[in-house]
Each structure stands twice: as structure tokens, then as C-alpha cells.
Amino acid sequence: MGGMGGFPGGGFSYSSTGGRSSPFGGASGNPFGGFGMDDFQNFNFDDSGRGGGMPFGAGGGGRKPETITKPIPISLQDLYKGITKRLKVTRTVYDKSGGSRQESNVLELNIQPGWKAGMKITFPEAGDVYPGAPTADMAFVIEEKPHEYFKREGDDLIYTARITLSQALTGVKISVPLLDGTNCEVSIRDKVIEPGAVHRVKGAGMPNRKQKGAFGDLVIKFEVQFPRTIPEDDKAQLKKILANAY
User: Fold this and answer.
1) 84: left (phi over 0), alpha (psi -120 to 50) or beta
2) Looking at residue 25, which CATH number applies to its domain?
3) Cα torsion through 203, 204, 207, 212, rounded to 10
4) Would you say the pTM of this structure is higher than 0.85?
5) Do residue 156 and residue 38 come from a single domain?
6) What is the pLDDT along the chain (246 residues), one digit of tens a residue?
7) How many CB atoms lie within 10 A of CB 24?
8) Quick count: other Cβ atoms within 10 Å of Cβ 124?
9) Domain ranges, residue 183
10) Cα gap 18→28, rounded to integer Å
11) Within this chain, do residues 165 and 139 fall inside the same structural domain, yes or no?
């Protein structure tokens, strides 16, 4: 895998949590080139917090130890465009006498565009080492960081647009900043916007990881803000205007 400490050089695999794992390339290379390289993140997988020596039951009878798993938070923007994360990890190598030493390495985690929370990326034999047993695997599970104004539903991006009652009645133009750095301009003039109304922009959502070139939608949900009070003179005018609106 490259980096420090001489970890095994095998590939890694990924899957949705609970799903079947599928290999997709060597860990020392970058099978999804062109992504940005993130700063190091440190992960310590040391089991020594349980006390001296090997953890109870680990490595006995030649059984493969349990995979060491850690969550890794990824921003929605990075899940949109893809990114390579460089992770500095530390594992424990146990010897037959019960002693142990720490070993560090740098792993490259290649996030593809469109990946989702819950996806699990496994590095075979990158975990703790026990005498007389196979080396443990190391895995990371993607957690999606909350976004400032988007919520994700599948491949769709949900955006809440807060507009005034005047805009709802007479028309509105809004600009939504997208994750690719562009803006989506939406103008609605031909109808009244009811509270909770939804406007869908095809293809302006997240990339579909299974279908190259396919994207979800941008779903704009309108929240209409009503005035707290209306002067009496204005009420009379509103009644006249709205009387013929139905």
C-alpha cells in the first residue's frame, strides 16, 4: 500500500454496509485518478487500551480476527466530486510472548463520485497482527457530514427555499449554488406558489455511482413566510384584490 511501516501491499475492497464486498484495484495506485488529495487524517487502531498483552480471544486457534472498523466523515461536496483521502493509521503487532509494538502506515482511500453514507471500504490484512492467526483486516465506513443547505435523499439533493407571501403570490426568481460550483437559476412567474410546493430540476443532483453520466435531481421545496400582522387599510385592499383571484 505504500507509506510507512511495511503493511501488506494487497488491494482493498468496498461494499455497502452489510452487502457483498467487491475488489476494485490495488491500494498503492489510484484507480480513480483526477481527484483532489486530502491532508492526512490520523487513525489509531491500537487495542492496548484494554491492558497489556493480546485482547482476550484474539488470534486463538488460527481464526481470523474481527475486522477493525472506523467511521470516516466525508463532506457532501467530496462525495459529489470524489476525493482521495490519505489516512495515517496505527496498528498493533503482537508476539508470542504477549508483548506488542506499534506499526504505522499511510493508506489511500479513493472516494468515487456518488458514494453514500454506509459504504464500507476494506483493506485486507492492514489491521492488527496476532501470532498463529491471519492478520486482521482494516475497514472504514463512510459517514456523510451535514451540509449547510442541502439534504440528500438517494441521488437527489433537497433544497429549502424560503420566500415571502408577496413572492409566492406574484412570482419569484431564486439562485441555488450547486456542488459543482455553478448556480441553478429558477424563475416561477406563471402560478401561485403554495406552501410546501415542490419544483424539480432534472439532473442537478448527485452523480449516480452505478451509471456513468447519470445524476439525480435538485428538489426545491418552498417555505412561504407569512407576515405576522397586516395594517387595517391594507387588509381592505387585499380583500378587493383577492376577491377576484378564485
Assistant:
1) beta
2) 2.60.260.20
3) 30
4) no
5) no
6) 333 334 444 444 444 433 333 222 233 333 222 233 344 455 544 433 333 445 544 545 578 888 989 999 999 999 999 999 999 999 999 999 889 999 999 999 999 999 999 999 999 999 999 998 999 999 999 999 999 999 999 999 999 999 999 999 999 999 999 999 999 999 999 999 999 999 999 999 999 999 989 999 999 999 999 999 999 888 888 888 888 777
7) 14
8) 20
9) 150-228
10) 26
11) no
